[in-house]
Sequence to fold (206 residues):
Amino acid sequence: MNFSLTCLNCSQKIDIDAAASVESLQCPHCHDTIKLRRGRMNIGEKINGRYKSLYKVSDDGFSGYFAALDEKSEKIKLLRVFDKTLTFSLQQPEAFIETAESFSPYGGKCQLPIYETGIDNDFIYQLMPFAKIESLEKLIECGYIWEPIQALDLIYELLLSLDEAYIATKSGHFSLTPRNIFIDDQGRLLYNDFGLAPTSYRINVS
Fold:
């Protein structure tokens, strides 16, 4: 997912790749420090007065994935919570939510299904069925290396899913990175954010 930022200090436009794992960046024009990850969800906090985050499962650089207790059904769900920076920066947060909701059912068999999405206390959140997942980036950082035949199987599954999604939507993913491709505890490949990349966002941060 790519973003266009405007530095509030000098009003210059900056294009960044949100897949990059950075907490802040320096404006190339005025050299002011721009903080990117403000307002992160903490363990123990609740979303929508119902979903209590128990522990962090993964992080993709601009949102956290949590094991969360649904206090109404008493079941564990996978809760994705975007940093508040995103909510404050989007001109129309509702459009972001609608895009994620509309594409999710057609994102292919590897797309993480989204059951519920919304905004609560300035957090954009997505609720999914619980899965123990880890990003490819983290697995590689920890030294995990796939055998060639395993890697080819994963790539094949990925391409089948993306082809299915393209047939249904006539759109591509456009922002797949090792941060939003996951492997669950059953060895299945999963991804998120299908359909979000083509949407243009204007972000103003300082």
In short: The chain has two domains: 2-35, 39-206. The chain has a mean pLDDT of 84.
